[in-house]
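[job 0412] stage=complex_fold ligand=tryptophan status=START
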Amino acid sequence: MTKKSVVLTGITTTGTPHLGNYVGAIRPAIEASMDQHVQPFYFLADYHALIKCQDPERVRESTLQVAATWLALGLDTANAVFYRQSDIPEIGELAWILSCVTAKGLMNRAHAYKAAVQANQESGEADPDKGVTMGLYNYPILMAADILLFRANRVPVGRDQIQHIEMARDVAARFNHIYGEHFVLPEAQVSEESALLCGLDGRKMSKSYDNIIPLFATEKALRKLIMKIKTNSLLPGEPKDPDGCTLFGIFRAFATADESAAVRKRYEEGIAWGEMKTFLFEYLNRHLEASRERYEALIETPGKIEQALQDGAEKARAQARPFMQALRASVGIRPLA
Ligand code: TRP
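[job 0412] stage=complex_fold status=DONE, emitting structure tokens
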């Protein structure tokens, strides 16, 4: 048997999963989890959440929502290892060891840190590091530990994360050079589709723009949000351009090629915005109904979710524990007799 390729990705638990997350990250990851040639590791990055969010209730609620979402959508937990970062103490241990082979200068170049410094400079702040925690600064090292501990070959991420995967490779190569070939060098896998969905205001759908449509909004809320999506002022009967239209972009991400072609035609014929919104709502609602029901049932039974995460943590630690022991030994930390 050839060794399965390890695909690993983390989801920071600070928000509520939205349509953009679903199309860009969750759906492809769940599809990949059904491929028996792949060994997926998917985890809730709750220690990463603390970097951006110091609201304990938000972190807890987001963890529940993200876990319920992935399970409701049918993640194959028999094949995929699905766990919570904070249940794997080896990740934190490895992060420390990696930080001891990571040049400070490498971390100075991290985008998130540089953006914070730049914002301080632009606002005339005397201290360039104002508001920068060590958590933000060390973020790429924690992420490297997440990835390297499970010898991931491929890491599906958004464009903004490519640099972090490159940093993980640099850190791994440095460690391997000093202590021997322990780590696999991971590769970023960027999906071209991931930036495509627009939000209520027409900008990219993102928590930071406050323009999201939650994936499992109630039927009523979903209708309301779709009605709020910004369109132009073309009148019913006037031909409209589907490309660049937020409504069509969302529809296309769910529809078959034939369905998209049919709606394209309706645009040419001048479909009214109100009619298109109602159509999109009904289409999405039908598409999401069954998984929304499973989601709501899971949210009501957090014990089931916790159990699934504990089962996942056990599988993850079965690999992490012996590997971490070998890594500790390789740096000279081992029993004396
Ligand atoms: N930092 C990633 C993000 O914000 C989430 C993440 C944490 C991650 N650890 C990871 C992604 C390891 C891939 C691999 O999107």
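The chain has a mean pLDDT of 96.
[job 0412] exit 0
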